[in-house]
Write a structure and sequence with these properties.
mainly beta; Thrombin, subunit H; four-stranded antiparallel sheet; 2 helices; 28 strands; globular
Length: 343
């Protein structure tokens, strides 16, 4: 689950209590060569799922993994999905695993185990990827280096608390947002070009950074900080890192998902029941919409706002043009948190 719902996170300590049902993985129908995937974290004590949606036809398929694998479940707290080199990598936080599937059919291939509260996977090439993980205590953060051929951990790189999303910079360095995990952090880690060590860790003005994005309207990276539930008066922060923070804005706490428009001239994020835009002209609210997860279609620039509702029943993704015009919606699973586009 995401940091802003801290009471969910403490229950993650009970992950060993729950287990996924064992089933025989079988091939099933499905052709998911393009479209929109929504990662549904799922309810406590249950399983998460992945929804697929076709923007052109409006077709929506719920729980594509189960449909492709004879009803198999992913487990508690499905965190993220990365499509790379013909395979899908599904990070399941509560199961401490990454499921490897065929990217077209979603048929199960293998499992990457040995992880500790994993969050996001970043491919580096055809053979290597990084996985951010919070550690068994939710505080001892690190990034695991994965051999994608043997599907084994080859190295673990310590970072700040609660490493979350990662981006690879033009110079080959990897930036990691340290979201605090079960605690508080205000840093971004930078890993060296061969991804064997943390070369520096610098502090940002806000607490618990979760998202990093490269922008075209300003040099360097932008970071979104959610704010900490441990503060009496929490607030979020969003701003530029060049490589140290120079400009930024206080924003409502517990927002999420800093994403870029197709041309990277505008960034978007959700906070305080609104969607905001950030560009060379500054920061401005766009429209009212609750979003637990946010994605920007790289083909159309449309914003996909994942509304988790009550976190216990079916969620919804609402689609808007960047000017705030609503263009559609579709139902998804429980607690939709990430939106992934394959174009």
């Amino acid at each position: 689950m995401k940091v802003k719902h801290f009471f969910f996170l403490f229950l993650c300590g009970l992950i060993g209590f729950f287990s996924c049902k064992k089933v025989v993985f079988q091939a099933g129908p499905g052709n998911y060569t393009a479209g929109v995937f929504v990662v549904n974290e799922g309810p406590f004590g249950g399983t998460g799922s992945i929804t697929w949606h076709n923007p052109e036809t409006g077709e929506t398929v719920q729980d594509v993994f189960a449909k492709a694998n004879g009803g198999a479940v992913l487990g508690q707290f499905v965190q993220s999905l990365t499509i790379h080199n013909g395979k899908g990598y599904i990070v399941v936080n509560g199961a401490n695993k990454v499921y490897v599937v065929d990217a077209v059919s979603f048929k199960y291939i293998d499992t990457i185990g040995g992880l500790l509260l994993p969050r996001f996977l970043l491919p580096l090439d055809d053979h290597t990827a990084l996985v951010s993980q919070w550690g068994a205590d939710g505080l001892t953060g690190s990034v695991a280096k994965i051999d994608l051929i043997t599907r084994q951990i080859t190295l673990t790189i310590p970072t700040g608390k609660g490493p979350e999303k990662m981006i690879r910079q033009a110079n080959g360095l990897v930036a990691v947002a340290n979201s605090g995990g079960f605690g508080v952090d205000s840093t971004v880690s930078i890993l060296n070009t061969d991804n064997t060590a943390e070369v520096t860790r610098f502090t940002v003005p806000g607490k618990n950074p979760g998202s990093l994005v490269e922008a075209a309207f300003s040099p360097g990276k932008f970071v979104h900080c959610r704010g900490s539930f441990l503060d009496a008066n929490p607030s979020g922060w969003v701003g530029a890192l060049t490589p140290t923070p120079v400009t930024g804005f206080d924003i409502p706490a517990y927002g999420d998902d800093l994403v870029a428009a197709p041309d990277s001239q505008t960034l978007f994020f959700a906070a305080g029941g609104k969607i905001y835009a950030l560009n060379a002209a500054g920061l401005s609210p766009l429209f009212d919409q609750i979003a637990y997860g946010l994605g920007c279609d790289p083909a159309t620039g449309n914003l996909y706002c994942a509304d988790a509702k009550d976190f216990n029943s079916q969620g919804e993704v609402v689609i808007f043009q960047s000017d705030g015009t609503r263009t559609g919606a579709f139902s998804v699973g429980v607690a939709p948190g990430e939106v992934v586009f394959i174009r």
